[in-house]
Amino acid sequence: MAFLANQSHATAAAFLENLLKKSLLPPKPQTLQTLYHPKKNVHHHKPLYISAVTRFGFITEPEDSSKTRCNAYEARSQPAPISIEFDQEAAAQKLKIGVYFATWWALNVIFNIYNKKVLNAFPFPWLTSTLSLAAGSLLMVVSWATRIAQAPETDLDFWKTLFPVAVAHTIGHVAATVSMSKVAVSFTHIIKSGEPAFSVLVSRFFLGETFPLPVYLSLLPIIGGCALSAATELNFNLIGFMGAMVSNLAFVFRNIFSKRGMKGKSVGGMNYYACLSIMSLFILTPFAIAVEGPHLWAVGWQNAVSQIGPNFIWWVVAQSVFYHLYNQVSYMSLNEISPLTFSIGNTMKRISVIVASIIIFNTPLQPINALGAAIAISGTFLYSQAKQ
């Protein structure tokens, strides 16, 4: 019995010694393969992000504050949804520009329709042009007086700089009105689509500016289209044709004077055009009186009212107010968009005016004439692209 007791104690001692040795040995490191479990969401084929090493195995040693604690997690098998916040400010700006363009085109079409109606019944383009400027000037003065719009801060230097711009604007405005009093609205605007050709020629020969070859090439369809349209116009009138050409030249100089003289000026957009209208009104009024005169106006007014009736007065008011509004919106648009976008918008505006006037006034149009118009307008679009 004593022998069995001693043997039992020896076996127990050996077992205890072996157990202590095993507990002191570091455990076998776990591998990614051993971490796999069919019911778990961890797999070694998916990326595993390691953020700590503490307790990564099965070590139960006391936690050391000098070690970094982190965990491991598996990447999502599907990308997390990314919420992109829509830029409301950019969307509002695009909507604003779209409203400007739509309003600009609509007002321009309405003006041209009523302007042509007035000129058909009352063929006095100098007075008609004066009334257009007077209506716009009155609207802006009232807006400033009632504080609907903030009045611009101007000085004598501003008005001196504005004077050549106003002279060119007055000539261009009257010349275009004279043209529309003699020929169809569509023909006037087809010829006026040749304004880029005048712009390049004036800038090249008077200002010494040079342009890349694509700009010069874009003038070929403009000039060719205008020439084809003029040669095939059924109701061609030399005064009407020359009026549109003079208007193109005058507006080119207006733009040049405006760019050179108004740099650094604080007045812009709506107020700039208002000041331009007021000065143009003072320039135009004495010339309108000298060329046509109150006596002819009185006789022509009576004839128009007797033929048309009270609606004629509405036509005069409408063409005067809408002339100012469409120009005002165009200047406001120019403050919000690039020159290229404005040029494209101006081309589309001219197309809408030509199409609308042909439909409303039943203007006879030959296919070759329409082809000339399409070529000229396409050239205008190409010019706006090449200029940039």
Automatic annotation (TrEMBL):
Q: Entry's InterPro entries?
A: EmrE-like (IPR037185), Sugar_P_trans_dom (IPR004853), Tpt_PEP_transl (IPR004696), TPT_transporter (IPR050186)
Write down a Pfam family by its short name.
TPT
Q: Where in the cell is it found?
A: Plastid, Chloroplast membrane
- Entry's transmembrane regions: 97-114, 126-145, 238-257, 269-291, 311-327
- Main localization (coarse): plastid
Which NCBIfam families does this entry report, sorted A to Z?
tpt
Q: What is this protein called?
A: Glucose-6-phosphate/phosphate translocator 2
Per the UniProt record, the source organism is Perilla frutescens var. hirtella (Perilla citriodora)
